[in-house]
Design a protein that fits this description.
Two copies of one chain form a homodimer.
Chain A (H helix, E strand, L loop, with lengths): L5 H16 L6 H7 L14 H24 L5 H18 L1 H9 L6 H28 L7 H14 L12 H14 L5
Chain A binds a DNA duplex (30 and 30 nucleotides) through loops.
DNA sequence: GCAACAACCTAACAAGCGTTAGTTAGGATT
DNA sequence: AATCCTAACTAACGCTTGTTAGGTTGTTGC
């Protein structure tokens, strides 16, 4: 019995519409129409459009961050942790596609303070990626190299997926993560 | 004596504002204000806001496409061509940052027909990347692997840069391309 | 049975939007 | 001297935007 409140439904619709059309191209009346109520009625449940965007982006970053916090602290080799991070990242992408899209694409339209809050979370996430890489280099799991650059490499792979990955295709999220991981480890060089 | 017409100036400002705030968050009056004219005066030079966006996105995709067409047809090994493609891609990113940002970020706000035109160009670009990879695998320049997946790998690296790369930092575009290329070739596996 | 409340409605607000029409001033062309 | 062109202006158009105020339901708790 999962009880979805009206508020939850509003967030759900907003996630979908924001992800499809973008924040500024979505109107409050459109969100309302999907729920078969009038535009003004939304304000019985939420405080405004900005809050709607902020909540969605925040939920997205919390989701990614929670996964990363779990993984980074695990007592497994860096190699296994990196693979697990990639798996979890793509799993979120696949399970919460609209939210992830809004998180990556629409955070620019937050006001400055809220943007800063999101940026801090993003930085934290990136620091975990770099930490895994650093520890992996030290432990001999990874070849040595510029930690920042390798981090950007991994993050590019993960973050760009929201632009093209559509779950339900031939490739499920775990397989994609594994294949990306393998290619990342082995490289293009023939051996 | 490079003569910039008023029209050119309008595109230049629009590129910058669209890239900073997004298409829908930029008003015609804001574009005009930057040129110290009135909103309505823009229409002596351009036909409307959509045309403005389309022209900018189109110029971006033309720029990337031109580079890729040059590179893919060269009579050099796939390995060299891939590196050159990455260099040129990042060079455009660095030289035409606002245009590249609009190209990657705002094309969604084009109407359907214009979107299709852009999508066709993007597909063409991606086909060149995959072609280089395919030819490289055949020639033994690259380890064999899923052409589509390797292509996505390369494109993720290149396309994500618009989200973070700021020219003028410690890393110039050519160095970045080379470092990305090296990492892509060698992989993270220690040897 | 009555009060309280939540969920929604209608109607309107002020502001801003892209765009157009009509006009004006100055310079170039005939 | 008459005409045209260019680039700008002012003023307004019709419409949409996010948001609010006040009223109307139906349900719940006492």
């Amino acid at each position: 019995m999962l009880e979805t409140t009206r508020k939850d439904q509003i967030y759900e619709v907003a996630e979908r519409l924001f992800s499809e059309r973008g924040y500024h191209a979505t109107t409050m009346r459109e969100i309302a129409r999907e729920l078969q109520i009038e535009g003004g009625s939304l304000y019985s449940h939420i405080s405004g459009k900005q809050e709607l965007l902020y909540e969605i982006v925040l939920r997205g970053s919390e989701q990614f961050l929670r996964a990363a916090r779990d993984v980074v602290a695990a007592a497994t080799p860096a190699r296994a942790r990196l693979r697990e991070l990639m798996r979890r990242h793509l799993a979120i992408m696949a399970q919460s596609t609209p939210r992830a899209i809004v998180h990556f694409h629409e955070w620019r339209h937050l006001d400055v303070e809220r943007q800063a809050a999101i940026r801090a979370r993003r930085d934290e996430y990136e620091s975990y990626v770099r930490r895994i890489i650093r520890e992996g280099v030290v432990a001999g799991d990874f070849a040595s190299g510029d930690e920042r650059l390798i981090g950007l490499h991994v993050l590019s792979l993960l973050n760009w997926t929201y632009q093209w990955y559509a779950p339900g295709g031939t490739l499920n999220a775990d397989d994609l993560a594994d294949q990306f991981f393998d290619l990342l480890m082995r490289g293009l060089e023939p051996r």
